[in-house]
Every structure is written in structure tokens, then in C-alpha cells.
């Protein structure tokens, strides 16, 4: 035990810290009923403090837990709404792409006219023949 020694004229007295005095008094023989009562009161207040501290820790942990859950629920609902909007937009874009692809897969009469061989005109006196193809109804809608 660490303590301060003070020498008086004929005796040496050891002065312990308050926490150590309570432990010493509890482990040793009590010298007076007043010391027993004060030690018992110190132990009661210490136990009460520890009990209150544990209850406060539990309450604070519960409050933090509830606030965190509420925040995460809000964030999760926002993410769900954003994800649903992206899914809807993706489905709309896919439908538009499929419609465009189906139009492109249809036969185009304007392309068939260009590809088909044309006879070369023998008479070059008139204006040149119109080699531009007329666009079909499919091409005009694209």
C-alpha cells in the first residue's frame, strides 16, 4: 500500500487515500462502529453509482441504436425509390430500342432500289436520271 507517512513525536501514522481506506477497513478488523457505517455507506454509494452508470450506458446505447436504425431506414427507402426509377427507365429504353431494331430489320424498298442493277441509259442528251432512291415509309419514320 502506498501512503504518506507522517511522523509525530512518538508514533508513525499512515494516511491512505480514501479508496484505499475503504478497502483496508473492509478487509481488516473494524475498530469502531462509526467506521463500519461509513464504509458500508461508501460501498452502497459506489454500488449505486455503478448501477446508475450501467443503466445510463444501456439507455444511451438504445437511443443511438434507434437513431441509427431510423437514419438507415430513410436512406434505404430513398435508395429503393431511386432503384425503382432506374429500373423503369431501363425498361422504357429497352422497349424503345426494341422498336427501333424491329423497324431496322424490316425490308426497306429504298435500299432495294439502290442495290438493284440499273441499265445504263444510251442517250445522254437529256438530264441525268434521278439516281436518288425514294424513301419508303419505314425510313421516313426513323
Q: Whole-number radius of gyration?
A: 48 Å
Order of strands, main sheet, comes to: 1-2
Uncertain runs are none
Tell me the helix content.
55-70%
**Which outline best applies?**
rod-shaped
Number of beta-strand segments: 2
| Count of alpha/pi helices | 4
Residue fraction in strands? 5-15%
Secondary-structure element series: EEHHHH
Structure write-up:
The protein is mainly alpha-helical. Helices cover about 65% and strands about 5% of the residues. The model has no long low-confidence stretch (mean pLDDT about 75).
Topology overview:
Blueprint lengths: L3 E4 L4 E4 L2 H10 L5 H73 L3 H7 L21 H5 L1
Antiparallel strand pairs: 1-2
What brief labels describe this structure?
(Atlantic silverside) hypothetical protein; 4 helices; mainly alpha; two-stranded antiparallel sheet; 142 residues; single chain
Q: What's a quick, concise take on this entry?
A:
About 65% of the residues lie in helices and about 5% in strands. The protein has about 140 residues and is mostly helical.
Amino acid at each position: 500500500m502506498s501512503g504518506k507517512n507522517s511522523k509525530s513525536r512518538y508514533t508513525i501514522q499512515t494516511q491512505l487515500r480514501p479508496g484505499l481506506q475503504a478497502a483496508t477497513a473492509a478487509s481488516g478488523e473494524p475498530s469502531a462502529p462509526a467506521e463500519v457505517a461509513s464504509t458500508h455507506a461508501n460501498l452502497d454509494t459506489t454500488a449505486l453509482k455503478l448501477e446508475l452508470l450501467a443503466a445510463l450506458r444501456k439507455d444511451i446505447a438504445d437511443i443511438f441504436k434507434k437513431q441509427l436504425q431510423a437514419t438507415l431506414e430513410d436512406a434505404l427507402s430513398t435508395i429503393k425509390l431511386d432503384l425503382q426509377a432506374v429500373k423503369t427507365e431501363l425498361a422504357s429504353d429497352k422497349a424503345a430500342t426494341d422498336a427501333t431494331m424491329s423497324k431496322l430489320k424490316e425490308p426497306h424498298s429504298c435500299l432495294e432500289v439502290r442495290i438493284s442493277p440499273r441499265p445504263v441509259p444510251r442517250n445522254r442528251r437529256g438530264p441525268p436520271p434521278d439516281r436518288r432512291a425514294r424513301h419508303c415509309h419505314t425510313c421516313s419514320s426513323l
